[in-house]
Amino acid sequence: MPLQKDFLWGGAIAANQAEGAYKKDGKGMALVDVLPAGNERWEALFHPKVALSTTYSHYPSHEAIDFYHTYKEDIKLFAEMGFKVFRTSISWPRIFPKGDELEPNEAGLRFYDELFDECRKYGMEPLVTLNHFDTPLYLVEEYGGWRNRKLIEFYERYAKVVLKRYKNKVKYWLTFNEINMLLHIPFFGGGLIFDDNENIDQVKFQAAHHQLVASSLATKAAKEINEEHFMIGCMLAAGEIYPHTCHPNDLLKSVKENQKQYFFIDVQSRGEYPSYSNRMFKELGVVIEMQEGDKEILKQYPVDFISFSYYSSRVTSADPETNKNSSQGNAMETLKNPYLKSSEWGWQIDPVGLRVTMNQLYDRYQKPLFIVENGLGAVDKLENETIEDNYRIEYMREHIKEMIEAVDDGVDLLGYTSWGCIDLVSAGTGEMKKRYGFIYVDRDNEGKGTGKRYKKKSFDWYKKVIETNGEQL
């Protein structure tokens, strides 16, 4: 079955990994603006008190790839590839520098007016994430991040401002990026810093409840502002979790682990807490504090579609000794799958896993899907002003093949936006050498370089894929 004629091919970036200009035109500090690069970054992510009290030599988000100033030339390159859609995010602290103000920053709003106008000039639909790992830093320092219910009010005010402002420029919206990452990197996902001896699971799931209510309130606002035009989606860091063996206990463990990642989307899509969460919360010692009206808001305003990132599958075991051999793969622990190759960063490459994930998500929710992140992070070598990135082409070709197979299986798929369509700062490592793009950016891990853009071999390959609607891979 061929893809639908209006299939949305494109690429994706995030404001905090691309824009730079971290204090330009009144922008406030975001979480990411206190994070360094390299090995220090992981320590900072998991020990944010250290990050807030340390002065580092380099903060990659401060300049990133300077998309704030180069967006016109970059979008022109995306248009040359034939993008139908461009996924980006709005930096919350560009609009509300501290996060709790009553009035927005007009200079920040104007920047996104111009950015979305540039997209539409080329017939490109913006796909916009409201919160992509850039909660204002002030809200963390002053309120404790998403553990504090007040952030619902601040987020709702921000969402209403941008939804109204861009109601005629943006159709597709995502409320939170990879919302389940709150459980895995809580500082990124929720601006959470833990005190000694507190129940960390209690804090994380209470923060999750606040985000889920906020997501529904943003959906409510969107429906009130432009119900006929807007489509509101949630966003999951996806990837099926396989059992290590066919032992029933391993299978049961994989079911339980998959439930943990689907938990957020169960609420956002179905409008209520799943039945399995009762036992999960009891075993974790979690009691969700709800206010009157929370359940009604969740129920009345579910999302319209399910978007997700997919980089790899994972493997788990019911045997604690076996699980000691787990390693990090995209910030989530996994056992090594002996049937799969791995990227230079140890992420296991599993194209068939994309088809599996798509089928599982569509069977579970029966709502349109949107692949909004997929790609290969690799070290690229610039020679003769281009990069022979056949490894990236192969990775994407095999994943797109499986994507099309899933559509043939009956999955309703809106579009596909490859991650990091132009090289940007890695979220996990803060490096530039971990490149995903079709366009090379001349910057290194220390932020040095000309910033000049170069087309990679994959640029022309992806252009042909879009031209033929996936028929020529």
Quick summary of this structure?
With 473 residues, the chain is α/β, with parallel strands linked by helices. It is built from 17 helices and 16 strands.
Please give a handful of descriptors for the protein shown.
473 residues; alpha/beta; TIM Barrel; eight-stranded parallel β-barrel; two-stranded parallel ribbon; 17 helices; 16 strands; 41% helix; 15% strand
How does this model look, in words?
The structure is a single chain. It contains 17 helices and 16 strands. It has helices at 15-18, 39-46, 48-52, 67-81, 92-95, 106-121, 137-143, 150-165, 186-190, 200-226, 248-270, 276-284, 294-300, 320-323, 351-365, 390-409, 457-467; strands spanning 8-12, 85-89, 125-131, 172-176, 231-238, 241-243, 305-310, 314-316, 327-329, 332-334, 341-342, 348-349, 369-373, 413-419, 439-441, 453-455. Helix 16 links the parallel strand 13 and strand 14 (413-419). It is globular and about 60 Å long.
In total, the number of strands is 16
Can you list the strand order of the major beta sheet? 1-2-3-4-5-7-13-14
Q: Which whole number gives the mean pLDDT? A: 96
Q: Domain count, please report it.
A: 1
The value of Rg in angstroms is 21 Å
Measure the end-to-end span: 15 Å
Helix content: 40-55%
- CATH fold descriptor: TIM Barrel
CATH superfamily: Glycosidases
Number of helices: 17
Globular, elongated, flat, extended or rod-shaped: what is the shape? globular
**CATH class descriptor name:** Alpha Beta
Which parts are unreliable, with pLDDT below 50 for 5 consecutive residues or more? none
Oligomer: single chain
Give the helix/strand class. alpha/beta
Keywords: Glycosidase, Hydrolase
Protein name: 6-phospho-beta-glucosidase
Family: Belongs to the glycosyl hydrolase 1 family.
InterPro entries: GH, GH_1_N_CS, Glyco_hydro_1, Glyco_hydro_1_AS
